[in-house]
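A quick aside before the break. I want you to see a complete sequence-to-structure record at least once, exactly as it would be stored in a machine-readable document. Don't worry about memorizing anything.
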Amino acid sequence: MIGQITTGKSATGALRYIHSKEAALSISSNFLGDNWQVQALEFNLTENLKPNVEKSVYHISLSLPHYEKLIPEQWYFLTLDYLDYMGFSGHQYATAMHRDTEHQHIHIVANRIGLNATLVDTGYDYYRSQSAIRELEKQYGLTQLQSSWVHEGKEMVNNFGQLFLVANEVDLPGELENIIPADHLFIVYANPQGEKYFLTSSPP
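That is the input. The structure line, written in tokens, reads:
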């Protein structure tokens, strides 16, 4: 399963897109309203709790390979599991399935601002999302894909010199140490400017 994340300012535009696309199927929502216009109004009211937040709209698409399908009920629970993993549990959201391609996929629009004025931190969300997706692939019996850091590691060997290889001892920046599985090998590469890249590959 492949996930894509964008953040934005317009809940109206995002909700209209996911619900108004031809052949769109509403999967789930915790808004009181059942159409995108009312949902956008609710979203905007919640935004007023934190008026200084510029980008409160969190838009995720989750796409399956063309040979795999989930029924709407499975997408409903998968949506909740994904949002919980990403820290959006209890936040306003709406999910719709788009059926305009051979790849079954859903769109989730969620509010980073909670009804209690909390704000979801989106730091390292690119990595956290992939980690969440890998777990969901196992949970829902989907094809297990590799996370991007595995592929990036192979590519960067050709561009930058390898400095050293250690197992579970590298000092990962920030929250990455809680995202990448502990049983992976950590490889550190540096470019000519001395900038370090923390990559991983699964154990042999």
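Two observations worth writing down. The CA atoms of residues 162 and 189 lie 5 Å apart. Residues 151-172, 183-204 have pLDDT under 50 and may be disordered. We'll return to this after the break.
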